[in-house]
Amino acid sequence: MEIGERIKQLRIELGLSQDELAKLVGYKSRSSINKIEIGERDITQSTIVAFAKALHTTPSKLMGWEYAEAPKPESKLSKEHQNLLDLYDQLHDDDKIRIVTKMETIIEDYPENKEGVS
Questions:
Q1: Does 103 share its domain with 51?
Q2: Where do runs of H (alpha helix) occur along the chain?
Q3: Is a pLDDT exceeding 90 seen at residue 67?
C-alpha cells in the first residue's frame, strides 16, 4: 500500500472529507488531496508530518514503516526446544502459568536439587 492509499484509508476511518483534510494540512482545495491519494502528487517530508498530525497517526505509520515485518533471526535452538516453544505459544495465558508452575515443581523434586543428596 502506498502513502496516498494509507492517507485515504485513515481519512475515511476518521470520517473526514477531502475538503476537511485539505484545510487541516494547509491545502486550498480537495483536488490536491485527491491527487495525493491516487498517487499523482508526491508530498514533502514536512507535509507528511502535517498529514500524520491531522490523521492522528505517526509519519512512520503513514510511510508504511511500522507495518513491515522484520526478518526473523535464524534460530539457534534445537528442533526439540523450538517444538516446545511452538507448543507453549499455542497455549492460553492461564495454561502457560500452569505448565510453568508444574515444570518448576517437577524440577524442585529432582534428587540433585534436594539438600544433602549428591
A1: no
A2: 3-13, 18-25, 30-37, 45-54, 59-63, 79-89, 93-108
A3: no
* Enclosing domain of residue 10: 3-63
Q: Kindly state whether residue 101 falls inside one of the protein's structural domains.
A: yes
C-beta contacts of 7-13 below 8 A and 24+ residues apart: 7/33, 7/36, 7/37, 7/51, 7/55, 7/62, 8/37, 10/55, 10/56, 10/57, 10/62, 11/37, 11/55
Residue 2 grid coordinates: 502506498
Over residues 81-97, the pLDDT tens digits come to 888 888 888 989 888 89
Q: Is residue 103 part of a domain?
A: yes
Query: What is the sign, positive or negative, of the torsion defined by CA atoms of 107, 108, 113, 117?
Result: negative
Q: For residue 65, give the 3-state DSSP assignment.
A: coil
Count of domains in the chain?
Answer: 2
Residue 64 has phi, psi (to 5 degrees) of 85, 10
| 72 SS3 class | coil
CATH code for the domain of 57: 1.10.260.40
